[in-house]
Amino acid sequence: MTARTWIGTGGYVFFLVAAAVIAASIGGSIERTLIVFFISLIAVLGMGVYSGNSGILSFGHLAFMGIAAYLSGILTMPVAMKKVTLANAPDFLANAHLNFFSATVVTVIFVMLVALVVGIVISRLDGSSATIATLGLLVIVHGVIIGARDITRGSQSFFGVPRWTDITVAAGCAVLAIVIARLFKDSVFGLKLRASRDDQLAAGAMGVNVRMQRLISWVISAGLVAIAGVLLGHFLGAFSVKKFYFVDTFALLAMLIVGGMATVSGALAGAVLITLVSELLRRIEGGIDVFGFQTPTLFGTTQIGIGLIILLVMYKKAGGLLDRLEWDEILLPRLAGRQTGPAASVVEAPVVALEGTLEAREITKAFDGLVALDKVSLSLKSGEIVGLIGPNGSGKTTLLNVLSGMLPETSGKSFIDGADVTGTPAYRLGGMGVSRTFQNIRLFSSMSVRQNVSVSALDKWPLTKGRAAGAIVDLALQTMKLTEVSEVQASTLSYGDQRRVEVARALALNPRFLFLDEPAAGMNREETDALLEDLKGLRERFGMGILIVDHDLPLIMKLCDRVVVLNEGHVIAEGAPQSVQKDPQVIEAYLGKKGSRQVAEILTE
Amino acid sequence: MFRKLKLTACLTVGLAMAAFPTAVSADEIIIGTATGQTGGLAPYDGPAMQGFQIAVDEINAAGGIGGKHKIKLISKDTRSDAAQTSIVAQELIDSGISVLVTPSDADPSFAAAALATDAKIPAFSPAASSPTLPMMGGDYMFANFPGDNVQATVSAEWAHKQGLKNAYVLYSPDTQYTTLPLYFSDVFKKLGNTVAGEGTYTIGQQDFSAEVTKIKAMNPPVDVVMTAAYEPDFPAFIRQLRAAGVTAQVIGSDGIDSPTTFSLGEAAEGVVFSTAGHATSGSALEGFNKKFAAKYGKETDTIFSAIGYDLMKVIEAGVLAADSIEPQAIRDAVANLENVEGVTSMITYKGTTGMPVRQVTLIRVKDGGRELVAQPSPTADLVPAPRMQ
User: Fold this and answer.
1) Are both B171 and B293 inside the same structural domain?
2) Which residues of A fall below an 8 Å CB-CB distance to B?
3) Which among A513, A546, A578, B50 counts the fewest CB atoms within 10 Å?
4) Which of A160, A280, A302 sits opposite B15 (nearest CB)?
5) What is residue A266's predicted lDDT score, i.e. its pLDDT?
6) Do B174 and A155 touch (CB under 8 A)?
7) In the prediction, which pLDDT does B20 show?
8) How far apart are CA A80 and CA A86, in angstroms?
9) Are B63 and B128 in the same domain?
10) Residue B54's pLDDT is what?
């Protein structure tokens, strides 16, 4: 947590409390409007905790809101009332009569448990399949509520819920929700989840268990939305299941999307904007007196107006009003990255176990009929730099993907220090000291350079404390000469710098085995030479083994202790750079039979 | 930038003017309507408020209620949403209304009823037919439609008089309204007849082959089938029933009082259903329909517009009886109203829990048109108590 996070959070709290105080002093319908606003805000923030950080749109959160409204309604309704309206309810519910606070706690816990069970399934899905699954959740819960007539009165009005939600309770819960949402976003969980939103594969390679992070945020967001459901039930006193279906789902999603899903400030801005606009238009549509002229009554103006606002915002700013930065990050850029704790002044190189071997034995990888790797064996010792070369399509990147756990092998085994790690998922291999960069840069593009590197530095959190992770980040940034740009958004950096961030991010995992996939691609000779020195430095300083794929043969020849040559999925040569260079098979693989003799002559000169 | 400022200024002025309604003279009665003019309730609340407006204009043209209380109408849209209803209702209460009109659906009406009760202001739902609403909504909540239990009683009494003896009722537990046949079942049995079966369906089910097979196989044969199903279930059911060769009398309820029913052709011929009124020639309802056409330039296609008109007549009668525009006095007067002359029916609140005693109209589908069967009032002793489940 940075100082700025706290300032930002404090700003929200001040805004909400001020709004509540003003509304309470005016009273009447303004107060009720604010209560509804607070309830919507809590729901939107809850949805944002999941959708904003994971990037997966959810249509299902109203299901949690519905479950919460019904459950807390049943728990708090006077027993005599339940005897009349819910005559067939099971005894433990019929006789329950809790106060507001206990009912809320019980309800939120129950909803989070439901979310946990559902989330175990949904967190396994990606992108639009997850979204469709949430839609299924909404439809199923809607059906179950109608079906559970004995406790919900089916699709009839569910009434007799004590009306306990006042402006104080609503504002208090909204403050709680916004603090939770912001702290979650800036927490380690939030950071890792946002990394997976920007690039799921890279996040996995940096040790992020994406499913787990999604599940955590799903459960927390369900808890927040449950609070909104409890408040809504106790505000209305009577509701039916249609209150928790598509119409309200889209109304709340509109707030989230217009404001900007990715930020807490966006959720707040969206809720404020939509509420303000609808309140304004609502007053006009009934017909008003403007300087003696009566305007006509045009019901529907509000919906049309809100529709236009959504169109306008989406047209101008597809990510929403506040699509990337929180209000404090926009207004207080200078406070960036200042840690609450004292900065680590001396950066120690982390201790790396020097001895270690990564070994691949007879790895075969087939994509349907196409055999990309055919019984490839390879070993990498710590402290060793091995070059992996071969023509395009020879299987180099596929090999890296298999070794880093991103692709399952068809057959063969891999070992770390003799232990079988075949089939271990990427995020766990990350924890075992395997780290990598990507051929086509895969940074967490919406995040700053420091945040990019922090994702991997926090791999062992909470075992590694946040401050220790901060030191690792500083070291990685220093090593790759990125300290100056640490607060810059990664995607705005130059190509060369983005490559360096990739390396820095891989380093922050404290790897014993580092895979570099074409680190020199797109670099000129000077940049490549500088990279060469940096990479040599890495080995000297940290002692890890490096497996490097590149087409820049001079770089490979100067850097590597050993070179492995792949062609069409086979290892065709292996050995010291000089000997591999002269191998006729290698030359032939690169240039075909015709040109090979000429080149061989040139190379041997 | 300047244009933006100007726009903002205009909006602000407009907003300020809307927020502070123009001063009201002491004798003026303010009526607030918080109804669903957009969204799911618009087909009911829209026409109801059009009819309501006709009555307001008429009364004001004649100098106000009793010649002294002009009506100031504040209309607001609830977007058919319960939370919005609660905001709008509070807004209306804050602006000093004497009477509140709530949506034609139970949930938002419940939300508004709670506020009306706190403020001691009488509230009326134009077309809600569930007797549970005024009963559980408190002393200040009234409805203005023939209740489900009243409609069912009239239908059962009619079937009994026709000599029908063996009924099958088809209901859906999905909503209060679609359980109306259970009231029919109670009354029909009380009259000494048998109910051979009570079948259920799910709203939107549309495939009724299992139910139809069951009805067809009944021994002794079923001579009357009662259901409160409406579109799209009713058309599907009646087609499948007739296709299977079942010729028993079918009785429906006001949910099928729609153009669709009359366009079903042979399948719907002979179906009898209960509704709120019928415009026989020379009747008050026919007179209202003409006024409606004159004001809005088109024929009304639903009974809800007349129901809205009648609601204003009830309020008028309440104010006259109370000789006051004080909300509590109006509420007490309405609770004791007897035989208010509406265009759909005589309306009585005395002795009820807020669900009026009204005549019910029975219509038969004949040659794709309406045939008036009867317009009876139910036998009071037979009307079943509102059911909670």
Assistant:
1) no
2) 28-29, 32-33, 36, 39, 84-85, 87-88, 146, 149, 153-157, 159-160, 163, 232, 235-240, 242-243, 247-248, 280, 282-286, 288-290, 297, 299-300, 302-303
3) A578
4) A280
5) 94
6) yes
7) 45
8) 10
9) yes
10) 97
Candidates A299, A303, A306: best to mutate against B (most CBs of B within 10 A) is A299
DSSP codes of every residue in A96-150: ----HHHHHHHHHHHHHHHHHHHHHHHTT--HHHHHHHHHHHHHHHHHHHHH-HH
Is B387 domain-assigned?
Answer: no
Contacts of A283 in chain B (CB under 8 A): 14-15, 18-19
Tokens 């209740």 — which residue?
Answer: B147
Report how far residue B47's alpha carbon sits from residue B289's, in angstroms, rounded to the nearest whole number: 12
Is the domain of B128 the same as that of B258? no
Mean pLDDT of A156-175: 93
Residues B186, B258: one domain? yes
**Is A8-275 a CATH 1.10.3470 domain?**
yes
Q: What is the mean pLDDT of chain B?
A: 89
The whole domain housing B257 covers 148-275+361-382
CB-based contact A395:A360 (threshold 8 Å)? no
> For the segment A252-264, what is each residue's pLDDT rounded down to a tens digit?
999 999 999 999 9
Mean pLDDT of A164-168: 94
Q: Are the Cβ atoms of B107 and A238 closer than 8 angstroms?
A: yes
Average pLDDT over residues B123-137: 90
Q: pLDDT class for A178, splitting at 50, 70, 90?
A: very high
Residue B37 covered by a domain: yes
Q: What is the pLDDT of residue A119?
A: 96
Closest chain B C-alpha to A423 CA, distance in angstroms: 48
Query: Which of chain A's residues have a Cβ under 8 Å away from the Cβ of B41?
Result: none
Determine contact: B16 vs chain A, CB below 8 A: no
Is A284 in Cβ contact with B18 (below 8 Å)? yes
Within this chain, do residues B240 and B336 fall inside the same structural domain, yes or no?
Answer: no
Lowest mean pLDDT: which of A55-69, A71-85, B315-329?
A71-85
Amino acid at site A2 = T
CATH code for the domain of B215: 3.40.50.2300
Question: Is the CA virtual torsion A196, A200, A204, A206 positive or negative?
Answer: negative
Residue B65 domain-assigned (yes or no):
yes
What distances in angstroms separate CA B228 from CA A173, A201, B155, B313, one per listed residue? Answer: 43, 56, 11, 29
Chain A residue with minimum CA distance to B76: A286
- Does the residue B388 lie in any domain? no
Please report, as a single letter, which amino acid is at residue A41: L
Strands (E), A133-279: 158-159, 238-239
Please tell me the predicted confidence (pLDDT) of residue A353.
Answer: 53
Q: What phi and psi values does residue A50 have, to the nearest 5 degrees? A: -85, -60
- In this predicted structure, the answer to whether residue A340 has a pLDDT above a threshold of 70 is no
Least CB-CB distance to A286: which of B76, B81, B93? Answer: B76
Q: Which residue of A has its CA nearest to B138?
A: A160
Same domain, B243 and B123: no
What pLDDT was estimated at residue B250? 97
- pLDDT higher for A383 or A76? A76
Residues B257 and B353 occupy one common structural domain: no
Mean pLDDT lowest for which of A18-22, A82-86, A446-450?
A: A82-86
Question: Is the Cβ–Cβ distance between B317 and B304 less than 8 Å?
Answer: no
- The answer to whether the CB atoms of B13 and A290 lie below 8 A apart is yes
A3-26 vs A264-285: helix crossing angle, rounded to 10:
20
B162 and B140: one domain?
no
Q: Which residue in chain B has the smallest CA separation from A148?
A: B174
- Show the tokens assigned to A509: 């995992």
Q: Number of folded domains in chain B?
A: 2
Q: Is B373 helix (H, G, I), strand (E, B) or coil?
A: strand
Average pLDDT over residues A330-348: 54
What one-character-per-residue DSSP string does B40-57 give?
TTHHHHHHHHHHHHHHHH
pTM score of the predicted model: 0.86
